[in-house]
Amino acid sequence: MDPAGAVNWAVIGTGAIAHRFCSDIRYSRQGRIKAVASRDPARARAFAAGLGVGVTGDALDAVLADPAVHAVYVASPTAQHRDHALAAIAAGKAVLVEKPLAASAAEAEEIAEAAACAGVLCMEALWMRFTPGVRAAKRLVDAGRIGPLRGLDAHLSYPNAFDPRSRLFDPAQGGGAHLDLGVYPLSLAFHLLGTPGEVSHGVVRAPNGVPMAGGLVLTYREAVATLGFGFLAEGRNDAVVTGASGRLGLQAPFLCPPSLSIRTASPAVRPDAESAPPLPAVRHGLRGALPALKALTRPLRERRVPTLYEGTGLQYQVDHFAELLAAGETDSPVMPMRQSIEVLRVLDRFALSDRP
């Protein structure tokens, strides 16, 4: 880091997520793009030219050798995450790896071990955990605003027709709905509820065998998380966290929700059959139904909490990463490497489930 505290970033890759990262970093307090790396140096230079004066583009080795680069963002296809992360670590650079951290838990463990041995900061770029809405939801849950957690219902689906040429369906590039989308609701469950005791799966496969959609049920001692994801259709893409005394909703898209809804039981009225207020006498018509409806909903109170953000939300992980660098940390308390590995272990088993 320079004396002003700014972090100079090198981006590996020139695809859509690299474009988003470079666009959102303008909203970052401390990050700025210094270089772009690609296996095609000409493509890297063309990408860098569009980012403004002072940004260079070159082959990976040249970019990693640049002493002005403080941190590396791995934005290459999932199948290349391991190799690019290990190269950055070997060069002594702090590294932020686009989700998922790797194509498998075994590869993620290699990255974590290399980073630990080198003493450099490494983190999965699970940007969802750092967006204002998810951070607010985590604070509310940890503060006990909805009581002890009892469940999570989260779904993330976007339509993508099967195309064996697409990276989304190419196993050699880390394709599959579980790695592209499933990592989000699963990581949210780990973030809010922790490591489950049991996990069950259901998979819908594309013609080439790659997971195209699926569901996970995570069982805890006193809670259940039901998660869905896939390429089959547009989903509702929200999340609901249920507690013993209330409910917290993350409006779609729950990755970076524009608002939260909090519905909690009134402390003066327990929402059970015995203590519920008596229903008024039956009267006909809509006017007669209103008192009954009010009586039924009185035990619960709901309010909306807007959670404003800039850009598409990738910059918040950048600022968190800068804080860790400044403090000399090598692991994130918000997105620890061990949890990235645990999530991938679940997804590994999911990908192999129902196989002969």
Helix and strand element order: EHEHEHEHEHEHEHEEEEEEHEHH
Strand content is 15-25%
Mean pLDDT, nearest integer?
Answer: 91
Radius of gyration: 23 Å
- The strand count comes to 14
| Terminal-residue CA separation | 51 Å
Q: Which structural class best describes the helix and strand composition?
A: alpha/beta
Name the CATH superfamily classification of the largest domain: Dihydrodipicolinate Reductase, domain 2
Per the principal axes of the C-alpha atoms, what is the gross shape? globular
What attributes characterize this protein structure?
Rossmann fold, 24% strand, Dihydrodipicolinate Reductase, domain 2, alpha/beta, 356 residues, 14 strands, 8-stranded mixed beta sheet
Task: Describe what you observe in this structure.
By secondary structure, the chain is α/β, with parallel strands linked by helices. The protein folds into two domains: 7-127 and 313-332, NAD(P)-binding Rossmann-like Domain (Rossmann fold); 132-308, 2-Layer Sandwich (Dihydrodipicolinate Reductase, domain 2), CATH 3.30.360. 33% of the residues lie in helices and 24% in strands. The chain contains ten helices and 14 strands. The chain has helices spanning 16-24, 41-49, 60-64, 81-90, 105-118, 132-142, 177-193, 285-297, 315-327, 337-352, and strands at residues 7-12, 31-37, 56-58, 71-74, 94-98, 122-125, 149-157, 198-205, 211-219, 224-230, 239-243, 246-250, 259-265, 300-306. The strands form two sheets. It has an eight-stranded mixed β-sheet, with helices on one face. Strand 9 and strand 10 (224-230) form a beta hairpin. Helix 4 (81-90) runs parallel beside helix 5, helix 5 packs antiparallel against helix 10 (337-352) and helix 7 (177-193) crosses helix 10 (337-352). The relative contact order is 0.16. Residues 268-283 have low confidence and may be disordered.
